[in-house]
Amino acid sequence: MPARRIPVAGPARGLALAQLVNSLGDGAYYVCSALYFSQVVGLSAAEIGLGLTVAWGVGAVAGVPLGHLADRLGPRGTSVGLALATAVCVAAFLVVRSFPSFVLAACAYATAQCGLAAARQSLLAGLVDRDGRTAVLARLQSALNAGLALGAALGGVALHIGTTGAYVTALALDAAAFAGCALLLARLPEPVRAGGAVPARGAEATVLRDRPYALVALLNMVMLLRMPLISLAIPLWIAERTTAPGWTVSALLVLNTGAVMLFQVRTASVVRDLPSAVRTVRSGGVLMLASCAAFACTALDTPLWALSALLLLAAGLQVWGEMRQSAGAWQISFELAPAERQGQYQGLFGAGVPVARMLGPLVLTALILSWGVPGWLLLGTLFLAAGLGMGPAVRWAERSRPAAAAPAPGPAAAPAPGPAPDPVPGSTAGPAPGSVPGPVPTGLRPSAPPSTGR
């Protein structure tokens, strides 16, 4: 990765290195896991899909209580523990040989992943000042995509070899990567609690009673339905409804990953406060609508060169919209959360990722593959409505914040992120865990924003 996309020395750089190591192992895992579970463990595609659906449902529920645990015990120790737990869960996949044991291991894996996402977001909130969080998250997103791309290349080697040993090595690499991530997180300082406050024992459900924040999280969850687009819906659409050659799918995956690595930091540089975050999310909804309309047009009978141009345009608009939505959502999720309860609030906000992974394939295939062009337009309208609704929802949440719960800035000693990149007119940017170049099985991608969690 270019040096200017890596934060300066300090906690921000430590978080970025942990993200890079973590995602390198994940890249190999995502490429090889489906074939490992089917060819080595002996599970059917239906069993794999059902097990992962159940697992991500469990993980979505576990995010809030594990985030609260990070608030009470400290985000660094909780992050380290959950990273090690994830390593153990991945290692457990190496010994499962039945559907019940697979479901148990997958539930434990998803729970640890979702809890880790919330704890790491809370850790970032404690180590980086308010003004620098979105910029640091953008750099973590860039590191995430770089690691996924490298890991996917290693996973591709395992796929080429195609033996049990190769698949086992890929999964073992992911387990080792999570253990390495835990070591890097353990080297970070423990954040100073805001005002020395520790959430009371009866505060577990505080975020669940915060209706304005829950609405904001729900709208973000709707926009996160974009996550299975590049790995599932778009490849199926291209194969079944267009005359584009098969290599087009890989080209769009590379475009998505490369754009996030190159432009996420620049996109996030325009987000400085809640008003700019709301504008960025709103523009993300507009771009996603335009992207869906462009993808719908690819069903028309057009020459190959025109079809290819339409697909590139649609994918470019998509990744630009994703990156803008992510940058704005990061700022909103932190700004509206009480400083002493960042863990549980990030747990609720981050629950959108496993829910999108769980429901997204069903919703997107029903809309796009069953309804065709009208389905694309309906999906785009859904993205637009969620983007436009974010402004009123955020204003409601702002009005409901008591003065004492206003988010406090991070510790003064926390270093600011690296120098802001030079603005590039017309540059695009994007989102959630970026796509990896290779066959990414549905439901196996990271739990989102970088901490996690696209």
Task: Sketch the major β-sheet.
Answer: none
Into which percentage range does the β-strand content fall?
under 5%
Helix content: over 70%
Radius of gyration: 20 Å
**Overall pLDDT:** 84
The DSSP helix count reads: 14
Q: Using DSSP, what is the number of strands?
A: 0
**Helix vs. strand class:** mainly alpha
Q: Which segments are poorly predicted (pLDDT under 50) over 5 or more consecutive residues?
A: 403-454
Distance between the termini: 19 Å
Order of helices and strands: HHHHHHHHHHHHHH
Identify the overall geometry: globular
Task: Please summarize what this structure is.
The protein is mostly helical. The chain has 14 helices and no strands.
Protein architecture, described:
The protein is mainly α. 71% of the residues lie in helices and 0% in strands. It contains 14 helices and no strands. Helix 2 (45-73) packs antiparallel against helix 3 (75-92), helix 4 (99-127) packs across helix 12 (342-350) and helix 5 packs across helix 11 (304-335).
List keywords for this structure.
mainly alpha, 454 residues, 14 helices
Set out the fold topology.
Elements: H1 11-40, H2 45-73, H3 75-92, H4 99-127, H5 133-161, H6 164-186, H7 211-223, H8 227-241, H9 247-268, H10 274-297, H11 304-335, H12 342-350, H13 352-371, H14 373-400
